[in-house]
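To assess whether ligand presence alters the predicted conformation, the chain was also submitted together with magnesium ion. Input:
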Amino acid sequence: MIRFEQVSKRYPGGIEALHELGFSIEAGEMIILSGHSGAGKSTLLKLIPAIERPTRGAVIVNGQNVAALKRAGIPFLRRKLGLIFQDQKLLFDRNVFDNVMLPLAIAGVAPRDAARRVRAALDKVGLLDREKAMPVALSGGEQQRLAIARAVVNRPAILIADEPTAHLDDDYARDIAETFHSFNQVGVTVLVATHHDALFAPFMTRRLTLSHGRLA
Ligand SMILES: Nc1ncnc2c1ncn2[C@@H]1O[C@H](COP(=O)(O)OP(=O)(O)OP(=O)(O)O)[C@@H](O)[C@H]1O
Ligand SMILES: [Mg+2]
C-alpha cells in the first residue's frame, strides 16, 4: 500500500533529514512511527501526500510513485488520504459542521448523504453536540478532534497523523488512540507519529523507529 525505496531527503540548506529509507506498509496495518526529536518522522510523513518531495528514491502509494507525481495530480492523491498535520488549519470563519463538510463539498458528495457522514464523523470524535460552534469556541483538544473528523469524513483508506495528541492530556489522548484503533478495525491503514506511546502501542501492528534519518 505504501512503499519507500531508497528514499533520501535533504532540505535546502544542507541537512539530510532521511537517509536511504526502505520499508513497506501493508493494507490494514497500524504503524507507530517513533524516534527522537529531529529523527525525521514529520519529514517521512510529509513525503506520502507530496507535501515534501524526496531528494532521491521512490515513494509508492497505491502503486503510484508520488515522488514523480505532477503538481496537477496532487489534489487527487490527497483526496484518498486522511491527513492530520499540525499546520493544517481549521477554517475559523466556519462552524464545526461546515469545517467537516468541506472535503465532501469539494468531492461533490450529495448534500443529504454528506450531512449524514459529517454527523457520523463528529459523533466518532465526540463533537456531535458542538456542530454549530465556531472553532475559536473549542478547547485545544476539541480542535484536534475536529481536525480528525475532517480527515476521516471522506473515508480514506490510509490515515496519516503527525502528533495528533500533542498538547492533549491523557484522557483526550486515549480517546483519540481508541478512535484510530476503531478506524483500523474497519480496515483503514494507519500511520501515526506520536509521543503518547503508551496509549497507542496496545493497538499497533508494528513500530518503525527512526534515528537520525535512518530506520533503527
Ligand atoms: N523545512 C525544513 N527546512 C530545513 N530543515 C528541516 C525542515 N524541516 C525539518 N528539517 C530538519 O530535518 C530534520 C528532521 O526533522 P523532522 O521535523 O522530520 O523531525 P521529527 O522526527 O518530526 O522531530 P519532532 O519529534 O521534533 O517533531 C531536523 O534536523 C529538522 O531540523
Ligand atoms: Mg515532527
